[in-house]
Structure formats: C-alpha cells, structure tokens
Design brief:
The complex is a heterotrimer. Chain A is α+β, with helices and mostly antiparallel strands. The radius of gyration of chain A is 20 Å and the shape is globular. Chain A has 8 helices and 12 strands. By secondary structure, chain B is an alpha+beta fold. Helix content of chain B is 54%, strand content 13%. Chain C has a single domain, classed as Formate dehydrogenase/DMSO reductase domain (Formate dehydrogenase/DMSO reductase fold). Chain C has 15 helices and no strands. In chain C, helix 3 packs across helix 13. Chain C is globular and about 80 Å long. The chains are: A alpha+beta, B alpha+beta, C mainly alpha. Chains in contact: A-B, A-C, B-C.
C-alpha cells in the first residue's frame, strides 16, 4: 500500500512537470516536397517490403481493403484535353493532437516520447474507433489472417512483427529503424545525428522528395525545409497538428490549389 | 417463546380498525398483505422510519469518491500521453464518477433492502396461501395464553373471517 | 382498469400465462430458438474463425451494421426503464400494467447490446481488456475514450436494470411460490428471498423502489448521450454534431415506446386474457408519448441537416449530398421521415390509437424508421470523409444481415422463455390498480 502511494506520488510529480507533453526527446518529422515528387510509387513498394505488409489481391483491393500504409492519392482536374493530374503521398501524419488516440479504450495507440503516434499491436482489441476517428483514413485493419506462403516468408523483415487477424495497424515512421539508430548511438555514447535515420520510403525515393529528421534539432535538414514558404500541412484546419509537412508544388500558373 | 395470532380479513378498513385496537392495547402487530398498503397504514399509524436512505446516501457518496479517485489514480499509475489531452482529464472524470455514483447507489440500496427487509424474515414461515392472493392478515405478536380469546374477539368483532394461533418454539 | 376483477381472478389469469402452455407456444419457441441460433450464433462463429473480413466493412467504413444494431438495441432498451422509473416517480397509474413487460424488453435488449459490442470487435476474445482491472500488464483503461464511457454507462445501466427488474418481481415471485408446484415452487421459494408481505417489507419496498427510480431516470438520459458521444466526440463530418445527445435520446425513446406498443399488441393477441389488464386506455396514453417524441425527433432531424448546411464546409456538404441526394440513401431517408414523422401523427386521431393500425402498423413503421436513422448516420457518414481518394461505399454482406435478423429471433425466443418463468404483468401492481377492498368505500 505504501509502495503504491509512493508510486502514485512519483507519477503525480512527473505529470505535474511543466511542459510534460511538449518536452519530447525528439520530434520526428517528415517533409515531402511535392515539387520533386513524380508519383512513381517506389515509396509504396518499399513500405510493403520493409514493414511486412501483406499483398491482399485484386478482390480485396476492389473493396478498398488494400493494405498500403503509404498511398499516392491521384486527383484529376479539368476535362480532356486540358487535364491536370495531381498526386500526393499520404501516410500516417503522426498528429500531435491525434483524434485516434482519444478513441482507444485500451491505450493501444498513444503518443510516445519521440513525438510519434504509436500503435501497440498486442494491446489492440479491434474496436475500430481509431480508424473511424482518423481524418486521413490511413489506418489499416487485419480483416483476415494474411499468410505469407513459402518462399515469401523468407523475405519478411525480422525486425517487424507479422500482425495477427483482428488488429489495427498503420505507418510507424519505421520505428524499428529509429530504435536501431538510437541503440547504436547509445552504444557509441553519442546522440542520434541528423541523417542517421532514414525511413524505408525516404531511402527509396529516387528524386529525394522525402526528408526525415528531428524538428527539435535546429540544424537538421527538416527544420530548414520546414521554414520554406511553400510549407503546409494536410487538413490543417482540423487542428490535428500533423508531423508530416508538405511543400507545395509550384506550377506555371503559381502554386497548385491541391498540392 | 413467541405466541402470535394471525387473523385474516377481507377488507382493509376492518383490518386497520382491528390493528388500531390491538396496538392501543400495547401489542406488537404486523400487517401482511398481497398489495402494498403503504398509504393506508401511514394514514392510520403515521409514517414509518426509512433506514434505507442511509444505505443509499452512503452508496452514492462512495460511488462518487470511487469514480473520482479511480479515474485519477489509474491514469497516474501508468502515465501515457494521448492526443495532447491532460493525464487527469476533468470531463471524463466527471462522467465516470456520475455513472459510478448511480451504480453504487443502486447496489447499496439493494443491499439495504436485503439486509433490512428480507434477511430478518428468512425463517418466518407463517404465511397463508390466501394472503398471497386476496386476503389481508393481521398478526399480533407476544400474546399470552390468557389473552388469546380477547384478541380473537377483537378480530372477530372487526370482521375477521379466520383467526388462527401460531406457536413457535 | 376494470374494478370488478377480483384479486383471485387477477392472480389466476397472470399465473395462467406462466403455467398454461399450448403446442403453438412450443412450435413458435422452437422456430425462434433455432432461427436465433442459426442466424445469429453460427454466422458469428464463422466470423470469429475467419475474421472481420467476412463483413462488408472496408478501409474508410469501419463501423457498419453491428454498430447500427448496437445503438438500435440501446434505444429499444430505453422505454422500459423510462416507463418504470419516470412514471413511477410521477405516480402515473397506467404504468402498472405495462411496466414489467417494458422492463423485460430492456433486460433482453441490453443483453443484445452487449452481444453486438462483442460481435463488432476485431478480437472479441480480448473483450475484457476494456474493463479496468488490475493485471500484470499494469495498464488500466484510457478514460478519455468514449468507448470507456460506454463500458461504464452500459455496465451501470445493465446492472441497474437487472436489479430493478428482479427487485420489482420479488413480491410476485413470493406469491407464485405458494400457488405453483414442482421445480417452479423450489425456484420461486429460492428467489423470493424471504418475502412475506408484511407492512414493514412493503414500506421498505416502496422506499427502495423510489430510490431506484430516482437513480435510473438520469441514467436513462446519460446512457444514450454517452452512446451518441461515440460519434459526436470525433471530427468526422456527419458525426461531430453537438445535437447528437438529445437527438439520440429522443430517437431511443421513440423506438422504445414503439417497441413497447408492438410487444403489448403481440402479447394481447397471444394471451387474450391480457386484454383485461392492458386496455385501450393504455394505448391511448402511450401513443400520446409517441406523438410528442416523434415531433421532437422531427425537429431535431431538421436541425441536424440544417446545422450541417449552415456550417457549409465542403465536407459537410458532401456528406449531406451523399445522404440526401444519392440513391438508395435518398429513398431510405424519405422512408425514415415518412415512418418517424408522418406515421406517428396518425395517432392524433383517437380512434386509430387502439385500432389494428395503431397497434401494429405504426409501431412497425417507427421501428423500421428508427433503424434506418441509425443506418443513415453510422456507415453513411464514413463513406464521405475528408480525403476524396478514400471515399468508398458500403454494402453489408450476408453475415451482417443474418446476424442482424438473428438478433430479433433471439430476442423473441428469450422473451418467450421469460414469460413462462416470470409474470409478465406485475400481479401486485395490477391488484393495486384494481383498488384495495374496503367495506366502506370512501
């Protein structure tokens, strides 16, 4: 009992610390320059390979159950022949005020000290609340037990778990790579430096449209890019405060209306 | 040794008249009926005590405190920030304690009812089938051997159809 | 209430419903029970085995028919407690003959509510993780989540309803324990818990009942408000509406009263003896409630649409277009308005209130309309969220339709079993209604 009270007192003090919510260890941020993006889809493919995403097939994709954590949205403007096709890669925006986090009754999704919106697979009971509340529709659900047949199971990433049926998942900003980089830096007695961590999509992007880094580090590439006048966030008016920053595409007639 | 007399009545006003006479003579009485006679009895004998309200009050206050402390303490035991909301969030605490107030209030009221109204009667088996249907019973407790005929007379005069004696060892 | 009915007659009539069982009862019960199991539990077992993939849910539409049914059955549950609690506090005499039936509906509807929560979950075998309990994981529940509000609100509601229902039955069970034989006698003797009917017991019973009623009345309002906050606390267009709490409560009461009317009508046909106790007068009273609630509901529906239009964000407009202008939802919306706003207005004509139309047709329309209301809110709003790339439609599969239908069969079969074990009309309250026998009437 005394131990419990001591623990409560200790936690009480932690949570009373000023700036408890804002004082993060890192603030992982991704900057996507839409001017450089050519919509090739290499990032989507690398995400499938890195994070053990199942390929669900034509039928399931037809009913909007494609498993991509990262998708390239295409929007067509105008009538033929005066057509403009625009595209934007959308993944989990790791919102600082994520609507999904309030929905979960079992703390399966919460905010960690790196400023990431994390999903704990083992805690999830599948109430679908997070996915319903998500304003970007980036959460994916394991509708069935997806099997990786021989020899496909040989290409699974050993650092990432294979999720079971009935749980929710989403883009993690390749948290396994963040973990590995932090561990390596700790072993060497250093702190994580800018450029140590690359998510799979950033690493793959042929035009270098995507940049990943710590926004709290003022010298990092993302911190500099985030000051660009072209910066905007997706659905900013909803006040979800996303961690993904888009740089507007500049077109002949000025900046595009839709990015 | 508790000797008592059970008289059965067809009409409630007859029963209340007999009950009043017996009560004035200093006997403990109980009225057994198939329907609640709360208003009629209150009209004749005044309002009875209601100890259940203490159970209800204690239950509601316990529930309120439980709700508030439970939400606060369990949130503190494992501090997990979510969506920039405070760890000790006030609206959910109010809502949860509102529900637990009702829950504990209901359960304590039930407990009070069981303790006060059901448990003391577990072993009392003097109960007539007719009273379960359409007769009203007046039971006079602690009647000595010599007084039996007096009470029976009072009951018969007031219109009792059936009087019987119950002896308990 | 006919004052010429004797107490003996009332007891015999109502215990006759329990003890006298014809072959038709068994035939219907078997049919309903078998349908309930084969339409509800077998598909559910298949779904647990194969995963939520067997439903028609997809990436933006994660809440489908199961959530619709969940809200629907919470709504059906509401009238029971309202009739028994609110009308108890206001000492409304016509409550007595219909309260027990309505409370029984509440009880079984809440059973289905719990069932549908488990059915809609991705991993239902871990359902207990949503309850706060100390465990080796040292983690509790997140109290900011509306789902946790639900756990507490519906848990409290179920507990209180069970307490209220069985507490109210104790005097009847005690009286039945003297008039029945065999296994019933042992069961009733055990369940009567020492009830003798003394003045002290009746006094405490009335007091406790008043406390229960006083607790349950605010609970009724809070439960459906909490259920509406599952939706209203999000930011999804069509969900995030401040009007939802009163809107849902009104809708719940409307559907609940329609359910009570239909249940009473069916019971009266099945057991003509009930016609003595549930009369045209009861229909007259309950239908007045239905008309009033229907008008409040119509106003709130209008406000829901108008506030969406007034907000005039592109998301709200898209959502309203999808709901109001695109087939088949525009037809469903029209049907909903017709069943919930127009049909109940027929009750204004006094003759219709206890006619066949008033007893059967209008309640069925309201029940269908209220189901459609939830359908048009839950999956439909999710079809048009923010990013147009993810817009998608939803159509339920046979598993969802079968479970929805099976719930009704299962509800009916449980109700049928209940009426053979417990008195569906409160014997002692009916006797109170008849009047207390006095030699000198005053």
């Amino acid at each position: 009992m005394a131990g419990l009270l001591a623990r409560i007192a200790e936690r009480w003090n932690i949570h009373r610390e000023p700036g408890f919510f804002k004082k993060l260890d890192h603030k992982w941020t991704m900057v996507i320059d839409l001017d450089k993006c050519n919509g090739c889809g290499a990032c989507v493919t690398s995400c499938y390979a890195e994070n053990n995403l199942p390929v669900v097939g034509k039928e399931e994709c037809g009913v909007s159950r494609a498993f991509s954590w990262l998708r390239i949205e295409r929007y067509v403007e105008g009538e033929y022949p005066d057509v403009k096709v625009k595209f934007i890669p959308v993944m989990c925006q790791h919102c600082s005020k994520a609507p999904c986090e309030t929905g979960c009754p079992v703390y399966a999704t919460y905010h960690n000290q790196d400023g990431l919106n994390v999903q704990v697979y083992n805690r999830c009971v599948g109430t679908f609340t997070c996915a319903t509340y998500c304003t970007y529709d980036v959460r994916r659900f394991n509708w069935r037990t997806y099997k990786f047949e021989q020899p496909l199971d040989q290409q699974l990433n050993p650092d990432v778990s294979v999720r079971e049926m009935g749980i929710m998942e989403k883009c993690t900003f390749c948290i396994q790579r963040i973990r590995a980089a932090k561990d390596k830096a700790k072993d060497e007695g250093k702190t994580v430096e800018d450029g140590d961590i690359q998510t799979a999509c950033v690493q793959t992007c042929p035009t270098g449209a995507m940049t990943f880094g710590d926004l709290q580090d003022a010298d990092s590439k993302v911190a500099k890019l985030a000051k660009s006048p072209r910066r905007y966030k997706l659905l900013e008016e909803l006040n979800t405060d996303p961690s993904v920053i888009y740089l507007k595409r500049v077109m002949k007639e000025g900046p595009s209306k839709h990015g | 040794m508790d000797n008592s007399i059970l008289g059965k009545f067809q009409y409630v006003d007859d029963l209340l008249a007999a009950a009043e006479t017996c009560k004035q003579s200093g006997y403990a009485i109980s009225i057994i009926s198939p329907v609640p006679l709360v208003h009629e009895i209150e009209h004749t004998f005044g309002e009875g005590k209601n100890p259940i309200k203490y159970f209800t009050g204690v239950g509601a206050v316990t529930g309120l405190l439980f709700g508030i402390l439970f939400t606060i303490i369990t949130s503190l035991l494992y501090v997990l920030p979510r969506a920039g909301r405070p760890i000790i969030a006030i609206p959910p605490t109010l809502l949860i304690s509102y529900e637990t107030t009702i829950l504990f209030g209901v359960l304590f009221t039930l407990l009070g009812f069981i303790v006060l109204a059901l448990v003391p009667y577990f072993k009392e088996s003097e109960y007539d089938v007719e009273i379960a249907i359409d007769a009203f019973g007046l039971r006079v407790h602690g009647v000595g051997e010599d007084k039996f005929s007096d009470i029976e007379k009072v009951m018969r005069e007031n219109g009792s159809s059936d009087v019987k004696r119950i002896e308990k060892k | 209430m006919d004052r010429s009915i004797t107490y003996k007659e009332a007891t015999e009539d109502i215990s006759g419903i329990i003890t006298k069982t014809g072959w038709r009862y068994y035939a219907i019960l078997t049919l309903m029970g078998v349908s309930g199991v084969s339409f509800l539990f077998l598909p559910w077992a298949y779904q647990i085995y194969a995963g939520q993939g067997v439903t028609g849910l997809n990436a933006p539409i994660f809440w489908g028919l199961y959530l619709v049914n969940f809200i629907y059955w919470v709504g059906i549950a509401h009238a029971g407690t309202l009739i028994s609690a609110m009308l108890y506090i206001t000492h409304t005499p016509w409550r007595r003959a219909i309260a027990r039936g309505a409370e029984t509906m509440t009880f079984f509807a809440l059973f289905l509510v719990t069932l549908f929560i488990f059915i809609h979950m991705g991993r239902p075998w871990n359902f207990y993780w949503t309850f706060p309990y100390p465990s080796q994981r040292e983690i509790w529940t997140s109290f900011v989540s509306p789902i946790t509000f639900d756990v507490f609100a519906i848990g409290t509601y179920t507990t209180s309803s069970i307490v209220f229902l069985f507490f109210g039955m104790i005097p009847d069970i005690a009286s039945l324990s003297h008039t029945t034989t065999g296994w019933r006698k042992s069961l009733y003797t055990f369940l009567s818990f020492g009830w003798r009917g003394t003045d002290r017991q009746w006094h405490l019973q009335a007091k406790a009942c008043m406390f229960f009623a006083a607790f349950i009345m605010p609970l009724v309002v809070s439960v459906h408000s909490v259920v509406s906050w599952d939706f209203a606390l999000s930011v999804v267009p069509g969900y995030a509406k401040t009007i939802f709490a009163p809107y849902f409560v009104t809708g719940a009461l409307l559907s609940g009263f329609a359910g009570v009317l239909l249940m009473l009508s069916v019971m009266r046909e099945a057991y003509p003896v009930i016609k003595k106790y549930v009369t045209a007068y009861h229909y007259d009273r309950v239908t007045v409630f239905v008309v009033v609630l229907s008008m409040i509901w119509s106003y709130l529906t209008l406000m829901e649409v108008v506030t969406g239009l007034y907000a005039n964000t592109s998301q709200e407009i898209e959502h309203l277009k999808y709901k109001l202008a695109i087939s088949p939802f525009s037809y469903l919306f029209a049907l909903m308005i017709f069943s919930n706003s127009v049909m109940p207005l027929l009750y204004i004509f006094k003759k219709l209130r206890s006619s066949f139309i008033g007893r059967f047709i209008i309640p069925v329309f309201v029940l269908v309309g209220m189901w459609l209301e939830r359908f048009l809110i839950v999956p439909n709003s999710l079809s048009r969220k923010f990013l147009p790339w993810m817009w998608h439609d939803y159509s339920p599969t046979w598993v969802e339709v079968s479970i929805t239908a099976g719930a009704f069969f299962f509800f009916i079969s449980m109700f049928m079993i209940f009426i053979k074990v417990f008195p569906i009309i409160a014997i002692f309250e009916v006797k109170e209604d008849i009047g207390i026998p006095m030699r000198k009437p005053h």
